From TrEMBL:
This is HDIG domain protein. Residues 163-367 form the HD-GYP domain. Signal peptide: none annotated. InterPro entries: DUF3391, HD/PDEase_dom, HD_GYP_dom. GO terms for molecular function: phosphoric diester hydrolase activity. Residues 76-108 have a biased composition (Low complexity). It holds the Pfam family HD_5. SMART domains: HDc. It comes from Piscinibacter sakaiensis (Ideonella sakaiensis). Residues 66-108 are annotated as: Disordered.
Length: 445
């Protein structure tokens, strides 16, 4: 039976079922566990959370001299109701090569406009990125220690990311790209989660389907938790043997998810067949040259095709142990040159629309010969974003900062091409679009 109790009445031996309040205020990445560590109890009491749900069938009840809040059997989750998604069957056989169901995709998606200004959502998303990083680090750490995966704590994280993307996709997508090679493995999962949600939004999927896509993105690389750290973080080129080992991560991750810890009906199991499929098949290519099963074309599910695009984009726009990140706009251009054999054409086109031809953070050259950084997309004109100009290429010197809305009829300037910061080496591009305060919050200042 579930009971809602004040935090002051929590004690060791209670089974924590849920926390009342926003996920970003929680002191833990997951909320359903037996409270055994005095440090966790102290964290809970010091947090901003005032009430909790406990499950007295799995742990201690409130003390005899402490009144409990009236019990309920249907607590409302802080992050909103869980999406209605199909339950995957633990112990089922791994997916085999062959046709897999295609997710329903609208042929004429109506993309909802942002409801929150970019600058406002960037500030909120920075806190979400930090908390998401800690959640994924904890999830990977448990997997490395050989513990059965408990994915129940991921639901609130995915719901928060989905809500942020629905408010303004540019904020979370852009901030999740700001990672160092040291935390690439963890932040890559968060970034692909956000990219999958934004792509689902662009394809006309509803919020429940978008959460499933986000869940798939968050867990797609769990198999890397089984990879030796010296291989995973190797700064140089992998040997053939090391590369073969790394290519096993989709199957290792799929096996982990199949063997995960599943609650006894107390939480919705959101590791659906689609989530499992993305984990196993996000490295398949439409021409059949991918792995592990060399699926081609329609043998690859829509979700797995989405995962392939999102995984590659975040990988090439991130700093890795063996290479520097590519510029977002440059990366879109390179992916376009690969798409005939690598990506599904419809999925790739929707992906580009979800980011913009010139994603936030791209360095561009204007017709005026000024250089600028893209700071925000215009939903109705993906080739005409908002740009903050800061440098004269002709005079080779800084110019006063100016924000240009290229979709405005009053703006006479326009983008004439991409520029590579590998050439220009401007150290402050991210500060120009995200702001120094946000970078400090992310530990990037």
């Amino acid at each position: 039976m579930l009971k809602k109790v004040p935090v002051e009445q929590m004690r060791l031996g209670m089974h924590l079922h849920g926390l009342c309040g926003a996920w970003l205020d929680h002191p833990f990445w997951k909320t359903q566990f037996l409270l055994q560590d005095p440090t966790d109890l102290a964290k809970l009491r010091d947090s901003g959370v005032r009430e909790c749900w406990i499950d007295v069938s799995k742990g201690l009840d409130v003390a005899a001299n402490g009144p409990a809040v009236a019990p309920r059997r249907d607590p409302t989750p802080a992050a909103g109701p869980a999406p209605a998604v199909a339950r995957a069957t633990p112990g089922a056989s791994p997916a085999a090569p062959g046709p897999v169901p295609q997710a329903a995709v609208s042929t004429a998606p109506a993309v909802p406009p942002p409801t929150v200004p970019m600058a406002e959502e960037v500030a909120r998303a920075a806190s979400l990125v930090n908390q998401s990083r800690q959640a994924v680090i904890s999830l990977f750490a448990e997997a490395r220690m050989g513990k059965a995966l408990d994915t129940g704590g991921c639901a609130d994280l995915v719901s928060e990311v989905t809500a942020s993307v629905w408010r303004n996709p540019g904020a979370m997508l852009s901030l999740a790209r700001l990672k160092t090679h040291d935390d690439y493995t963890y932040m890559h999962s968060v970034a692909v989660c956000a990219l999958m949600v934004a792509l689902a939004r662009q394809l006309g999927m509803d919020e429940g389907q978008a959460r499933e896509a986000g869940f798939a993105g968050l867990l797609h690389d769990m198999g890397k938790a089984a990879m030796p750290l010296q291989v995973l973080t190797k700064p140089g080129k992998l040997t053939d043997a090391e590369f073969a080992l790394m290519r096993a991560h989709p199957e290792r991750g799929h096996a982990m998810l199949m063997a995960r810890q599943v609650g006894a009906g107390d939480v919705a199991d959101e590791v659906t067949a689609g989530v499992l499929d993305v984990c196993l098949h996000h490295h398949e290519k439409v021409d059949g040259s991918g792995y592990p099963h060399r699926l081609r074309g329609e043998q690859i599910s829509t979700l797995a095709k989405m995962g392939a695009v999102c995984d590659v984009y975040d990988a090439i726009t991130s700093n890795r142990p063996y290479k520097a990140a590519w510029d977002p706009s440059e990366s879109i251009g390179r992916m376009a040159s690969w798409r005939s054999g690598h990506f599904d054409e419809t999925i790739f086109q929707a992906f580009v629309k979800s980011l913009g031809i010139y994603p936030v953070g791209s360095l561009v050259r204007m017709q005026s010969d000024r250089l600028g950084v893209v700071i925000e997309q215009n939903e109705a004109a993906i080739t005409s974003p908002k740009v903050k100009v800061f440098f004269s290429a002709r005079q080779q010197m800084p110019v006063p900062l100016e924000v240009l809305d290229l979709a405005s009829p009053r703006c006479s300037d326009r983008i004439v091409g991409r520029e590579s910061n590998a050439v220009w080496k401007f150290p402050h591009l991210d500060a120009l679009w995200a702001g120094p305060e946000v970078l400090r919050k992310l530990g990037r200042a």
